[in-house]
Amino acid sequence: MSVAVLKGPTGLGAAKLMAENEAGEAVNHYTFSVLAEPTEAVAGLSRAEEPFDIAAVPTNLASTLYHKTDGGVQLLALNTLGVLYLLEKGDAVHSMADLAGKTVYATGQGANPEYVLNYLLRQNGLEPGKDVTVEWKASDELTTLMASGEIDLCMLPVPAATSVLMQNADVRKAVSLTDEWEKSGAEGVLTMGCVVARTAFVQEHPEAVKAFLEEYGASIAYMSDKANLDDASALAETYGIVPKAAVAKKALPDANLCFITGDDMIAGIQGYYEVLFAADPASIGGSIPDGAFYFGADA
Fold it and tell me: Are 136 and 106 in contact (CB under 8 A)?
């Protein structure tokens, strides 16, 4: 079974399973790939030869893939809730409304971060590009700029945000976008990451997929348990999901890892998709997924 995970929060939950697989202790035999960008996962799921069977991807991308492939992927589980923060070198920003007239440097254009930021700005009476300037950067570049003090306001996810806070004592967490989402009264849970599988693979190997979900759920539980923080942090570095164990140790408590399947998965994500669809239908591939998108649920 070929499994792809992303560096950062979406991939953190898999680190324990990666170690068990390497030790020959996993039920399934896995080949793991750790990717830098979601586009790599899309390409891997879509290719004809040696495709990824399962991949951890942003939730909006999962829906886009479902439509793009005419039902070629299914949503297996939600794995990451909200992890976005506004960071500031200063003390001027305490809410989304405080961004009026400012320039925010951000990462995640074309994915959840952009759509969440735009939604929350508009909920606070601000039009992106008019009332607030947003400059999009790659995560590594943005982390470096903020940590070095070259810029003073940015939006980053954990653990990149954690790395900045560790490197520059003058930077603070100004706003949690998860908190702002809850204040906005939006339907659904702010859910940033999930796991999808190729529909053909699910149909051909249903028991293997169920075994994966059991092992993956246990891995997320292990990585989320504060009692395992030192080992979990080391595993995150070992498998290249986070550059340094010290960063992972600070980031894991804020990484909002989760494991939500079945009908709870539908309840958790459909409201979020409805918000994204209302804001920009293209953000989820043009329409809200139908029931066939959800694995193991009575949709």
Answer: yes
Query: Bridge-partner residues for 99, per DSSP?
Result: none
Q: How far is CA 108 from CA 1, 93, 115, in A?
A: 28, 21, 9
Which helix or strand (DSSP H or E) is residue 74 part of? strand 73-81
Q: What does the pLDDT read at residue 298?
A: 56
240 Cβ neighbours under 8 A, 6+ residues apart: 7, 34
Beta-bridge partners for 75 = 196, 294
pLDDT of residue 187: 76
CA–CA gap between residue 95 and residue 176 (Å, rounded): 9
Q: Which residues 6+ apart lie within 8 Å of 218 measured at CB?
A: 16, 17
Parallel, antiparallel, or unpaired: how do β-strands 73-81 and 257-260 relate?
A: antiparallel
DSSP per-residue codes, 162-230: HHHHHH-TTEEEEEEHHHHHHHHT-SS--EEEEEEEEHHHHHH-HHHHHHHHHHHHHHHHHHH-GGGHH
CB of 193 closer than 8 Å to CB of 75 = no
**Which residue positions in the chain have pLDDT lower than 70?**
297-299
Question: Could you say which DSSP state residue 89 is in?
Answer: E
For residue 279, the surrounding DSSP H or E stretch is: helix 262-279
**pLDDT tens-digit series, residues 185-243:** 887 789 999 999 999 999 999 999 999 999 999 999 999 999 999 999 999 999 999 99
